[in-house]
Amino acid sequence: MSKDQKNAHIDTLCIHGGQEKCAVTGAVMPPIYTSSTYAQESPGVHKGYEYSRSHNLTRYSFERAVASLENSGISSECDTSNGGFAFASGLAATATCLELIDSGDCILAMDDMYGGTYRLISRVRERSQGLRPVYIDMTDIESVEQAVKEHKPKMIWVESPTNPTLKVSDLKAIAEIAEEHGAIAVADNTFASPMLQRPLESGMHVVMHSATKYLGGHSDVVGGVLVTRDEELAQRIRFLQNSIGSVMGPFDSYLCLRGIKTLAVRMQRHCESAMTIARFLEQHPKVESVVYPGLESHPQYEVASRQMALHGNPAFGGMITIFLKGGVEESRRFLETVEIFALAESLGGVESLIEHPAIMTHASVPAEARAKLGISDSLVRLSVGIERVEDLVEDLSRALDAV
Ligand code: P1T
Known about the structure:
37% of the residues lie in helices and 15% in strands. By secondary structure, the protein is of the alpha/beta class. It has two domains: 3-260, CATH 3.40.640.10; 264-401, CATH 3.90.1150.10. The strands form three sheets. Strands 1-7-6-5-4-2-3 form a seven-stranded mixed sheet, sandwiched between helices. α5 packs parallel to α6 (171-181) and α12 crosses α14 (389-401). The site of ligand P1T has 19 residues, from α3 and α4. Ligand P1T binds next to α3 and α4.
């Protein structure tokens, strides 16, 4: 990015952050570099590009763009992509991040999080890496302090807002605890996106995204990202990214880069429509309760209002969780009746999606843990897209009438 863009507004950074026009052609978008390898003049003498797992300019463009949005502050002298790293999926990013800690180490993790993250930590890395996970509710900062003292974790993994119960944790307070105890603090920022929340600015060491969601934004690509503000971690993650090799390919990098160009306008619409829908659902007689960080009834409404903002005003994202009156049959009827909302896993795209976490995205979380977290048969998760909000309300209204 040129010097005069350094203080640019985040809306502008979505389009220009970390980008340079092609020196040869002036192309405003980077070419999709498909070459798997690069010719060398003499063994070891090359233009900085050896092999595409290690070096790929299309991927770098996307990595730099996200690093700019997350405000990594890492120079290109320290890291080619300013501390941004792109992976084949969100879970590939998470898996690589977990390699920052050693066999036998404790990881303190949020009790509620994406089911696949839980599965990776508990059902894969606990066995293969000897990780010792401890799950706690990080909305309670005192319990984070206590758990850190007791278990001495090497990594603290927090998702905020969480998937699917939308718990919001105080990232600044957690980062301070991690810093004091020498643990690496990682925030999964998928639900908020860098438009609403920049965890590195709150002191977290690493931010993770499923780029499949808001960054990509069009449900047509699977990807993941890590960004760090710490120079040493940047070097270690660069090494791990290349050594493990689960990198994002050039076509996907191009799609993700294209996606974030419209992140600012998309997030604005997601937030506005979700608020309208949350208020509509809140007063609906077939709905037992609505969880949305922007409602005063949300248990962490105050933290969310402080931590999540769009253009300086509190903003709470496009995800809503509801509890329907009744059980699995009522949920099924509702989910089978919606038309504009697609019954599908995933979230964060321009189209509205709806799903049943207990049967779909969080089936890998043990039933006992799900029950403790309240992920019941009547819980339904909505990802509010950017269609006309009146049409979305009508769709939900019709489906609720059918329950
Ligand atoms: O699907 P993948 O790109 O590998 O990302 C995993 C992931 C990580 N973190 C959060 C908060 C997520 O929501 C996800 C993926 N989630 C879904 C597929 C879902 O429907 O919830």
